[in-house]
Each structure stands twice: as structure tokens, then as C-alpha cells.
């Protein structure tokens, strides 16, 4: 049996009250009522210092030693080890020192890790909620390019590319071309 992924708008909703469960995109589209869906994996819930603590907090959705196994169709969650945020805040990028024959200083502290739950699900995408941003290639040439903030730039970078003009059908071969003065002719190219 394969995994049945929940259909929801958020990871929390996927865990608690999904709209349904589907294995494939076409099934998810039908259960979502025709709304667009995309397959995503998102981290949710609190962070835990150890894997055992995370397993104890999510006993019904992840496998743990000595407990009954999660059914194959319910394996849409897994525990992920992530880098814990620095409580003091980041110090920025390290500067090279070029001291004692070494270019980089020794790290002052090791990065701490934390465990979080990762949920794989079919995310319902509301087309009205998507930002109507221009393509990055057009926005960078505009006069307002310097005024864009980091959030807008990040949103532009993550939106799908739109074609400048519709793609023309490829009706000639790789080593052929049509001259501009006679577009009805196809001439072989060497």
C-alpha cells in the first residue's frame, strides 16, 4: 500500500483536519474541489533537543522503538534534524584572519541541532492569494528596482517564470533555417 498524503492549506491542518487524503495529484485535485494543489514538505510544531523527545511528542505519526508501527498509508510525517536558531543572534559572516598560517579562525562553538516534525502533504493553493509581481527580468530594468525590499525580491525569485512571448512550434530541423526574405523556404545549414 502506498502513502496517502493529506490535502490541506497548512501543515497543522494536514495533521488535524485534512480535506481528504490522496496518493496522486489528480486525486488531490478532485478532492480539493478543483482548487490547485502542489506537493510540499514543511516543518511544523515545536523543536526538541533529542530525537527521543520528539518521538514521544508525536507518538501517532512517527515510528518509535518499542511502539506499534505506523501504518504504511499514514507515513507522511518524519522527524528532521535541523540547526537550532542562535539565541544570541547571528554574528554575520566570519572574516578571514590570516594568522598563524591559517586563513580562517577556529569556530568558537559548534552548531546546536534540534528535531522537528516534517509533514508531506498536498497544499491547496489559492490563486487569489498569490502575489501579482512582475517577472524579475522586467523588474530589474524598471526605475523602481532600487526600491524593492528583500521580501519582494524573494517572492519574485520563487514565482514561476512566465514566457515573454508564446513559444513557436519547431517545424524545421536542427541544421536548417528559414531566411527572413523567404520564410516559406527551408535551407540546409552546414
| Residues in helices, as a percent range | 10-25%
- What spatial form do the alpha-carbon principal axes imply? extended
Q: Mean pLDDT, nearest integer?
A: 82
N-to-C SSE series?
Answer: EHEHEHEEHHEE
As for the number of domains, it is: 2
How many individual β-strands?
Answer: 7
Distance between the termini: 55 Å
Protein model, in words:
By secondary structure, the protein is an alpha+beta fold. The protein has two domains: 1-86 and 110-130, no CATH class; 131-161, no CATH class. The protein is built from five helices and seven strands. The chain has helices at 11-16, 25-31, 51-57, 136-139, 150-158; strands at residues 5-8, 20-22, 36-48, 77-83, 113-125, 176-177, 187-188. Strands 1, 2, 3, 4 and 5 form a five-stranded mixed sheet that branches. Strands 6-7 form a two-stranded antiparallel ribbon. The radius of gyration is 26 Å and the shape is extended. The mean pLDDT is 82.
Quickly describe the structure:
The protein has 190 residues and is α+β, with helices and mostly antiparallel strands. Helix content is 17%, strand content 23%.
Give the topology, please.
Elements: E1 5-8, H1 11-16, E2 20-22, H2 25-31, E3 36-48, H3 51-57, E4 77-83, E5 113-125, H4 136-139, H5 150-158, E6 176-177, E7 187-188
Summary keywords:
about 190 residues; 5 helices; 5-stranded mixed beta sheet; alpha+beta; single chain
